[in-house]
Specification:
The structure is a homodimer.
Chain A lengths: L23 E6 L10 E6 L2 E5 L1 E6 L9 H7 L4 E3 L1 H6 L3 H6 L3 H5 L5 E3 L3 H7 L1 E5 L4 E4 L6 E4 L1 H11 L3 E3 L12 H21 L6 E6 L5 H12 L5 E4 L8 H14 L7 E3 L5 H9 L4 E4 L1 H7 L2 E4 L2 E4 L19 H5 L2 H9 L3 H28 L2 H13 L16
Parallel strand pairs in A: 4-5, 4-14, 5-6, 10-11, 11-12, 12-13, 13-14
Antiparallel strand pairs in A: 1-2, 2-3, 7-8, 8-9, 15-16
Helix pairs in contact in A: 1-14, 6-7, 7-8, 8-9, 10-14, 10-15, 11-14, 13-14, 14-15
Chain lengths: ~400, ~400
């Protein structure tokens, strides 16, 4: 891994001046506080440039469910996430490496980030035992006994070959854990971060560290200091997008981000996916996000529009000749009526899942694009106010926080 | 409905000289018997031209499973079939009519044929009672008691608005029926054909009659004479593509087709879908075909290639970096390996079904295209001999007849 340098001007900071970093991040616009901490950036990776703030669709099994790479390009995806845990179990990271790596395997030549695996190990694996060495658990697929260590997580992700890898962490659910458990997990995540740094050697792959610490300000402060001091290429905030309230999440970010204010690296909040949640996290200063939420609710028939959320399983749409969203450029809205989608959903037709996913991913990626434009234009605070005001009166897209989804 | 005229030259026969037919069929090349009865033709419909012999992918619920209209154009589909029975039950033909008809509803602007509904009523409906008036049965969806008559089948298909409608018939399984049952069903199908002709009034929609008669030469002969004498725009052969052998099917076609030899109308063999079966039916003089088979076996992981059938669920493909078929232009073979498809199938990923369907439909439609070219070039008998010879040594694409599939 690489070192970082503190740039003199926060407006043009860049990560890793030592020359060996595979990514380069530049903050383009960072409005004055306290109006907002939102910032627009540009992340260069071996497979292309990503404008931030950005939402990353999730391709759990080396496929964003129901979508092919052309669909992903059409909805505007510039970077996607793939799950380290799932791919290590099936089809196996060594197999993917033999087949040329994840990009070739799934025919996606834009940037990819592979996640830590920690969240899935802890939430999906059965009979897990966590000790200093790592996590022992049974595969949710076939019950095989498996062992994930920081070193193994690095080997898996180097084999997969994403542009960005993430350290193995130990997430704990904020509300279901004692302060002692949260503190222990955060401290272990820091020790594992050091081991990940030592183990990671692939020069064309960036590595992000993860800050844990639950909802405890002092633990988050300590974790931010510890992870921030290590030479990662980016900083993840983990342990959120769970069962915490929006206010609790904001409080954590308002502890973490100011400590990273002069830090020249991208900030990635793991697991967040609803529009209003993304808006608030951008306002708090975060740059990168991922979630299965937009695609998962799409497959359930819930379509996002600026006026709110439409449940296409509702019988009233069976005779509705309008598109889901007037003027939307997506594959669904270009050609098909609400009535047709409602019919496909009722008939359980596979095309429904693809069309609905195309729409919700277009919606959320266009939403992020409008956020980026507003930041660049200096009007993000106004955009945020206007969206929050419109949310107040609707079941919209969507006021309530929606928790992190364990798995697709 | 329209009348037909017997053309003087079999090479340039055309249907329906009275001017009101919505379709026009022209035989372009009909080689001398006895080498083959294969013929190439050109079918003009309100939504475009179809070169024959042609295979029609099946869009049971107003969608060819896992495919969107762009996919269908890309695989080379020039006409598709939709199921009258399914669409009458869900979402309802009157609803589709209100939404602008089937073409607009499913955003497919090329030709569509809707089938008779008879096969599905008899095979899918529960508690059916068939009498002279029609068929009473319970919906396979919700158990509702429904009644299909020839007049109702016409009303449904006129509401759907396909380019080609088909008469309600009473199919019976050849082996499971007595000669008396087959005779009664064939005679009733003839009487229902007259009622369909009387009931059908949509001028921009063609109507095809159906010949039944099981495996009995004399019944087939009588049915061919009766249906052939009615002013249909095309002639279907029903009651095949079931549990009969390839030899029994050929024997029926060798009774029916010679009786229609000077008949200027397209001949449609309902329900046939495997390459070798299509090859033989073309040789016997048939022009149009449909089946869910290529798409259904694709979704099960069975991929067709010139060298034979690949079962992508087999573990040996998990490390196979080659495309399913070298040089194939389909969406699957252009970008993805056998290993990737094998992985998607094991993970139950939706993309697997679309990619596999793209391949098998490309394969069967390219196969039909090569048949058309050979007929035009006068080399169809050689093509047939060569394919049959290559079949002898493989598990190919595919020697054994594969029965008609009741439903997707």
């Amino acid at each position: 891994m690489t070192g970082t340098e503190q740039a003199a001007e926060p407006q043009t900071i860049r990560s890793a001046g030592v020359g060996s970093t595979p990514i380069r991040f530049e903050v383009l616009d960072a409005p004055e506080r306290p109006a907002t901490r939102a910032r627009a950036g540009r992340l260069e990776t071996p497979h292309g440039v990503v404008e931030t703030p950005i939402f990353m669709p999730v391709g759990t099994n080396a496929t964003v469910k129901a979508m092919d790479p052309d669909d992903l390009e059409e909805v505007g995806a510039t970077i996607i996430l793939a799950n380290t845990y799932h791919l290590a179990l099936r089809p196996g990271h060594e197999r993917i490496a033999r087949l040329g790596g994840l990009h070739d395997f799934m025919a996606w030549q834009r940037p990819i980030l592979t996640d830590s695996g920690g969240f899935q190990v802890v939430s999906l694996g059965d009979l897990r035992r966590i000790d200093e060495e790592g996590v022992t658990f049974r595969s949710h697929l076939d019950g095989a006994l498996l062992h994930f260590t920081p070193e193994y997580a690095m080997a898996v992700q180097e084999a997969l070959g994403a542009d960005i890898a993430v350290c193995l962490d130990q997430p704990v659910p904020p509300h279901a854990s004692t302060r002692g458990e949260v503190a222990e997990a955060a401290a272990r995540t820091e020790r594992w971060a050091e081991r990940c740094l030592d183990a990671h050697g692939r020069e064309d792959q960036a590595l992000f560290g993860i800050i844990q610490g639950g909802l405890e300000p002092d633990l988050r402060r300590a974790a931010t200091a510890a992870i921030g001091a290590m030479p990662f290429d980016g900083i993840c905030v983990g342990g959120l997008a769970g069962d915490e309230t929006a206010e609790q999440r904001r409080a954590v970010l308002d502890v973490v981000v100011p400590l990273l204010a002069d830090d020249p690296r991208p900030r990635y909040l793991m697991g967040l996916g609803s529009p209003i949640d993304l808006l608030e996290a951008v306002d708090a200063g975060m740059d990168m996000f991922d979630s299965v939420l937009p695609a998962r609710v799409a497959r359930n028939g819930s379509l996002w529009t600026p006026e709110g959320r439409l449940n296409l399983r509702n019988a009233r749409f069976l005779d509705d000749a309008r598109p889901v969203q007037e003027g939307c450029p997506c594959r669904l809205c270009r050609s098909f009526s609400r009535a047709y989608l409602a019919h496909l959903l009722r008939a359980g037709e596979l095309l429904a899942y693809r069309l609905a996913t195309c729409h919700n991913l277009t919606f959320i990626l266009d939403f992020m694009s409008s956020i980026r434009s507003a930041i660049r234009a200096g009007t993000f605070p106004e955009l945020r106010r206007s969206i929050r005001a419109s949310q107040a009166g609707t079941n919209g897209a969507k006021t309530a926080s929606e928790g992190r989804v364990k798995s697709e």
